[in-house]
Amino acid sequence: MQTRTYPQPAGLSLYASIVLASAIGPLALNMYLPSMPGLVAYFNTSPGMVQLTLSLYLVAIAISQLIYGPLSDRFGRRFMMLVGISIFITGSFICIWATTIETLIIARLAQAFGASAGIILSRAIVRDLHDAESTASVLGYVTMAWVVLPMIAPSLGGFLEVRWGWRSIFWFLTFLGFVSLLLSWAKLPETNQNLNMPSSNRRPYLEIIKIPIFRRATILLTGSSLVFFSFIGGAPYIMINVLGQSPLEYGMWFVLTATGYMLGNFTSARLAKKLGIERMILIGTTSSAIGGTAMLAITLSGYLSPFWLFACMSMATFGNGTTIPSGTAMALSADSKHIGAATGLAGFAQISIGALITQILGFAQTGYPLIAIWSIAVFAILTLVFYTSTCQQGSIYERN
Fold first, then answer.
1. pLDDT of 319-349, one tens digit each?
2. Which of 230, 262, 257 is closest to 314 using CA atoms?
3. Got the DSSP string for 198-250?
4. Least crowded by CB within 10 Å, which of 198, 216, 240, 328?
5. Is 224 found in the same domain as 171?
């Protein structure tokens, strides 16, 4: 077994730079949402064209993770983080001066490509600095910021648009990008311990995907993510078209879902080192399965309401918040020489497959209004079954 040493973290300033760098991507996604309806008239275009500024943003986030991961293994986490944030600033600045919807779409792609660096490299940096259990604990705290900031982002974006117009949102994001760049430049050291070591492997993804523990962790992460993506893809339709609620009521109830995820993150942060990541994943997948099954049972009994929909989903997202930090730590422990590539491949699987499921549910729910509830229950149960049937496949420490 390869022995690793873990450097002493630089302190709170290091983690502040990681949190901010990882948060600008979700902020740029969610702050922009209130402006989308108004941009149809502003650019004299179609809703579909404006929708591309959102959907292509997600596509770019997913694909760019495959790029940053191996490049950070080769050129360093710090260098690639600074490059990514610089690209984000450039994209945000172009958004400010966009005069056509086509320019805005291209600028949003640049934003997403740059923001992806913070999302993926923050996880790799944490794994560079900690063993597996500590990684799960620290990621629990870091991930809480990814939940809190997007919760307030639409309100902040709406305020900025009403007060100063939609371009002010991108001025704010440009400013935030500069702060993140300066903080990373000043406080983020190079954490890749294998940076100067020679490596003959030029195809890290093919090597990583051969490792059983990585495949297991990625399947667990993707299964847990599909529970959430199923809800995102179907809950608005169920709330508004089936239960007769307003978009505002949907937004208010959604706080329960985010709160459940935050509590799961907090539980992971507090208990991962004490209980170990295997037990945390068991707690998380069990909680998600209970929440998904309860939601389906209540639906079949005819008692579905906004309260039960979101109460059950908050139990499922509590499970997600508990599972994902530990599952990520497991995936990144598969091969210490290619932590960045492992992060990129696992993240790509979660987002790309999740986006596909969301799109499928969007088409299917017209004929099957409650299909998202079935999807939530099925994915939650299958993830738990997969975990329990593979939990004897060996220790995560075999190759870390």
1. 998 998 888 888 877 776 777 778 788 888 8
2. 257
3. ----S-HHHHHTT-HHHHHHHHHHHHHHHHHHHHHHHHHHIIIIIS---HHHH
4. 198
5. no
Both tokens of residue 281?
A: 């994943």
209 and 105 in one domain?
no
**Cα–Cα distance measured from residue 143 to residue 22, given in angstroms and rounded to the nearest whole number:** 9
Backbone angles phi, psi at 335, to 5 degrees: -155, 110
Question: Tokens representing 356?
Answer: 């596909």
69-124, pLDDT tens digit by residue?
Answer: 888 878 888 999 999 999 999 999 999 999 999 999 999 999 999 998 988 888 88
For the CA atoms of 76, 80, 82, 87, the dihedral, rounded to the nearest 10 degrees, stands at 170
In a domain, 299, yes or no: yes
Q: How many residues does the chain have?
A: 400
Work out how many domains the chain is built from and give that number. Answer: 2
User: The CATH number of the domain where 177 resides is what?
Assistant: 1.20.1250.20
Give 3-state DSSP helix, strand, coil % of the chain, rounded to 5.
80, 0, 20
Task: Assess contact for 94 and 106: CB atoms under 8 A.
Answer: yes
Distance, CA of 310 to CA of 340 (rounded, Å)? 35
